């Protein structure tokens, strides 16, 4: 299995979820071993995707460097990981990644439009050797050894539309597109009103977020999956784990996980060399291990 980038530059214009400001974003190929790099073209600052560049996890995962920041990166990173892309330049003329429809499917379509190129350098993965956990009260996120990439997430909300939801997802590109990519972000009406009062969620509406009031889901079209809420949490977790810098070979388990806990988990695993090993996937076929067998042409 080799590293991958995209074939052609692609561009889109959208709205940032929190600032509500239009932003132009482009994806461009990068050479092998370059990794994922964000570029604030309005400021001339490049920000590499790595845990030490995370500056905030309150409402989204935010990278920052030299007074420049890039916010709400997790949905885009989730799709990039799902297609097995290792090297990519992401250019923005504002601080937020476009929210699209609140899921990752728009980014999947953009990547498919760009095409994918296999490079010469071997792909590497981070293999988990022992359990690593971060807790906050009864909330936790944990990585465990596994021969496959699995995300096992549980949530609990008192709202009647959510209650207790669990979903166990075994990763493949095809499964991601079918089971995870279309799951939208969600929020509660009273929280949305508060966030707007402090200058956030200005770009959020029923076209890019599931909104719940006391009676249930406000979106007229309803849910895309009966358990869309927990599936979106998996979408977020896949994007947050991309901060590791390479595909994960192990099981991620969480109860009420968050961007903050995910960030702390990436820092904790990378700080303990006894907990992981870097595995070369040079001799691994596409349909084994990470399973990136699905190509854009037949997506």
From TrEMBL:
The Enzyme Commission number assigned here is 3.5.1.108
Which cofactors are required for activity? Zn(2+)
Tagged with keyword Transport = no
**Pathway terms, separated by semicolons:** Glycolipid biosynthesis; lipid IV(A) biosynthesis; lipid IV(A) from (3R)-3-hydroxytetradecanoyl-[acyl-carrier-protein] and UDP-N-acetyl-alpha-D-glucosamine: step 2/6
Uppermost EC category: hydrolase
Catalyses which reaction(s): a UDP-3-O-[(3R)-3-hydroxyacyl]-N-acetyl-alpha-D-glucosamine + H2O = a UDP-3-O-[(3R)-3-hydroxyacyl]-alpha-D-glucosamine + acetate
Q: Where does Zn(2+) bind?
A: 75, 232, 236
**Gene Ontology CC:** membrane
Q: Name one GO molecular function term.
A: metal ion binding
**UniProt-listed InterPro entries:** Ribosomal_Su5_D2-typ_SF, UDP-acyl_GlcNac_deAcase, UDP-acyl_GlcNac_deAcase_C, UDP-acyl_N-AcGlcN_deAcase_N
Which Gene3D superfamilies does the entry mention? Answer: lpxc deacetylase, domain 1, lpxc deacetylase, domain 2
Task: Give the residues annotated as active site.
Answer: 259
Keywords from UniProt, A to Z, are: Hydrolase, Lipid A biosynthesis, Lipid biosynthesis, Lipid metabolism, Metal-binding, Zinc
One GO term of the biological process aspect: lipid A biosynthetic process
> HAMAP family this protein is in?
LpxC (MF_00388)
**NCBIfam families noted in UniProt:** lpxC (TIGR00325)
- Protein function: Catalyzes the hydrolysis of UDP-3-O-myristoyl-N-acetylglucosamine to form UDP-3-O-myristoylglucosamine and acetate, the committed step in lipid A biosynthesis.
PANTHER family associated with the record? UDP-3-O-ACYL-N-ACETYLGLUCOSAMINE DEACETYLASE 1, MITOCHONDRIAL-RELATED (PTHR33694:SF1)
Family according to the record: Belongs to the LpxC family.
What name appears for this protein in its UniProt entry? UDP-3-O-acyl-N-acetylglucosamine deacetylase
């Amino acid at each position: 299995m080799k590293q991958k980038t995209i074939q052609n530059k692609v561009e889109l214009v959208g709205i940032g979820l929190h600032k509500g400001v239009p932003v132009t974003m482009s994806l461009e190929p990068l050479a092998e071993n370059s990794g994922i790099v964000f570029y604030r073209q309005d400021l001339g600052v490049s920000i590499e995707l790595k845990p030490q560049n995370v500056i905030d996890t309150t409402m989204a995962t935010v990278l920052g460097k030299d007074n420049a920041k890039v916010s709400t990166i997790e949905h885009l990173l989730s799709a990039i990981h799902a297609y097995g892309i290792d090297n990519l330049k992401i250019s923005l003329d504002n601080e937020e990644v476009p929210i699209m429809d609140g899921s990752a499917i728009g980014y999947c379509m953009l990547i498919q439009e760009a095409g994918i190129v296999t490079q010469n350098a071997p792909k590497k993965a981070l293999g988990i050797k022992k359990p690593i956990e971060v807790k906050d009260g009864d909330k936790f996120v944990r990585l465990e050894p596994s021969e496959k990439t699995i995300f096992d997430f549980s949530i609990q909300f008192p709202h009647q539309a959510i209650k207790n939801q669990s979903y166990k997802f075994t990763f493949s590109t095809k499964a991601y597109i079918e089971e995870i990519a279309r799951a939208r972000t969600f929020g509660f009406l009273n929280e949305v009103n508060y966030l707007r009062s402090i200058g956030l969620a200005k770009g959020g509406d029923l076209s890019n977020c599931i909104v719940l009031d006391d009676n249930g889901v406000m979106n007229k079209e309803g849910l895309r999956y009966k358990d869309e809420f927990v599936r979106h949490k998996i979408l977020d977790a896949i994007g947050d784990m991309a901060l590791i810098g390479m595909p994960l070979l192990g099981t991620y388990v969480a109860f009420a996980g968050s961007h903050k806990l995910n960030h702390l988990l990436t820092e904790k695993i990378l700080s303990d060399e006894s907990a992981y090993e870097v595995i070369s996937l040079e001799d691994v076929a596409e349909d084994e291990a990470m399973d990136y067998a699905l190509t854009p042409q037949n997506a």
